[in-house]
From TrEMBL:
Pfam families for the chain: FAD_binding_4
Species name: Meyerozyma guilliermondii (strain ATCC 6260 / CBS 566 / DSM 6381 / JCM 1539 / NBRC 10279 / NRRL Y-324)
Protein name as it appears in the record: FAD-binding PCMH-type domain-containing protein
GO CC terms in record: mitochondrion
GO molecular function: D-lactate dehydrogenase (cytochrome) activity; D-lactate dehydrogenase (NAD+) activity; FAD binding
Region described as Disordered: 1-38
Family affiliation: Belongs to the FAD-binding oxidoreductase/transferase type 4 family.
InterPro entries associated with the record: FAD-bd_PCMH, FAD-bd_PCMH-like_sf, FAD-bd_PCMH_sub2, Oxid_FAD_bind_N
Gene Ontology terms describing biological process: lactate catabolic process
Residue ranges annotated for the FAD-binding PCMH-type domain, each copy included: 34-208
Amino acid sequence: MKKVVGENNVSTDEAELKAQSDSFFSTHHPPDPLKQKPKALVYPSSTEEVAELVKIAHEYRVPVIATSGFTSLEGQAMHTRGPNSIAISFANMHKILKIHPEDLDMTVEAGTSWQDIDQYLLSNDDTSHLMFGPDPGMGACIAGMVSTSASGTNAYKYGTHERKCRQLDGGFGRWNYYQNQATASQNQCRLRHHQALYWSRGHTRNHH
C-alpha cells in the first residue's frame, strides 16, 4: 500500500488510529476500543489509488473501512474486525473537479463536504442561483452521504440524496452529481452496484 500512495500517506500513529475507530456524533461505540481499531490508516489521492488499495485488501482478505466526514450516527466507522483491518481516509480527496451549470451537473471527489459544494456554488456568478439540495449533518462529506443516503431535512422539499447521483466512478473515490430529479429512463439504466452502495450503512465497505 505504501507503494501505491507513498510512505508519507500511510500512518500507524496510535492517536490517528484511535480517532478512526469512533466519532463524537455516533450513538454506537466500539465495545472493545483497544482492539477494535485499524492496523493502519491510508490516505489515497485519486480514484485509481483507491481502486488499487481495495484490490490489495481483497487479495489478502483484509477488511476495509472508508471514512470521510465522521458525522454518522450509527457507528459506521467501527472496526469490528480490528485490529486486523485498515482505514482508508478520503481527507486528501476533496476537489470539485467539474461543473456544468446548464446541465445542473457537477463532479466532485469523495472527501468533498456538502457545505463546500454549497459555498462554491454561491461564490461563483455562473452558479450563485443554484444550491445543493441535501443538508445532512454539518461536516458530512460525499462518500458517507452515498453510503447512508444522508439527505437531511431538505429531502422533504428537494428529494433524497440518492436521487441526485448520476454516476459513481469504479474506484469508489469520485462521485458525479446533478441537482434535478432523475427521469424514469435514467432510473432504469442505473447499474446495480450503484444502487447497492446507497443505504449500505457501511456493509459494502467491509471486504473479507
